[in-house]
Amino acid sequence: MPLPEIDLPVYPNECDAFGHLNQAAFLSLFERARWEMLMRGPGWDVFTRSGAWPAVRKTVIDYHAAAFPGDILRFQQALTHHGRTSFTMRQTARRVRDDTLIATAEFVFVCVDGGGRPIPVPREFGDFMSPRHGGDAQRLTVNGVSLAVEVRGEGPAVLFIHGYPLDRSVWAHPVAALEGYRRIAPDLRGAGESDAPDLGYSVETYARDLAALLDALGIDDAVLCGLSMGGYIAFEFIRRWRARVRGLVLMDTRAEADTAEGKRARDAAAGTARERGAAAIAESMLPKVLSAATLSGSPETVERVRAMMAGSPVSGLVGALGAMRDRPDSTDLLPTLAGLPTVILVGEEDELTPPARARAMAEAIPGARLVVIPGAGHLLPVERPSATTDELFDFLRSIP
Ligand code: MLT
Question: Model-level pTM?
């Protein structure tokens, strides 16, 4: 179930001498929208039932356009960080009449008891605010962040590394289906239900998180399966911990660094994320990542990907864009992968990392196999889940 959207009217007494909705009145409207949302969900007393009170520790509001008496504003709420005792909520207000973005806000809360001491965020609240995932993830604190990670099955380990602006749910099919393997699918820092710190993102940091995650799970080595940005991270992991990698799946990805133009596009996208939020990133990315067949023939897949992208924490989006912009070129690494079982999977209609690039990578890695999957764009495991899982099975079985 998506979180309820809340429509609230602007009253004249909330406006200033120029007839604009006053900036201070916004605080009340954002708060009213939160209470309304709770009333339509677990109830106003969801906190007090657990003896917890959410105290606001930080508020950031961006005012984008003026609103006037009589306007109806639509408030959307999303949880962008769920810590042990704190959480961050992002809210947007749009004018219903013309869909103009009026304001965006981020509120950091700490749950405290009657004596003002921090206490855990009530589980019921977290479950209500994070409807995208089932309760099957565990949380592990590694390398200074708490990561949500799904771990299933027994056998040789396969570590799934998702792309941008996505989360671990892209791996739902192979994680459910690859029996006989220990499937590990984390939300990277800044994505899904993992912590989304404001700063400190790089492909090196992501790779260190993953190495620490394997340590925490007591796993020495794994097959790495990286989708797009996940591939960039896999290259970094191999540069540092080659001995821990038993095989490599490169999915819809590439080895080259960003061009100067590509770096400028990353900065522009980061500006969009900051000013207009994750929903705007989702709108611009959707047509680039899905094939024409998916866009026209699978509305439920389109909506699933849109919701995944639009639920991304802004700090995580901005962090990932900077990490991708600054990532090193991995072309020189490819010939050195001789002896590492490698398969390269690509959607036939992948525009972001097209089959020609995948073919060039396959030719540069001695012994690598290339598989082009028809009907898919840049998101193979979401657009062609069964075909992707079949290829993964074949590859995993081929590893000595
Ligand atoms: C991804 O899917 O991870 C990104 O689109 C990769 C990129 O933008 O380079």
Answer: 0.72
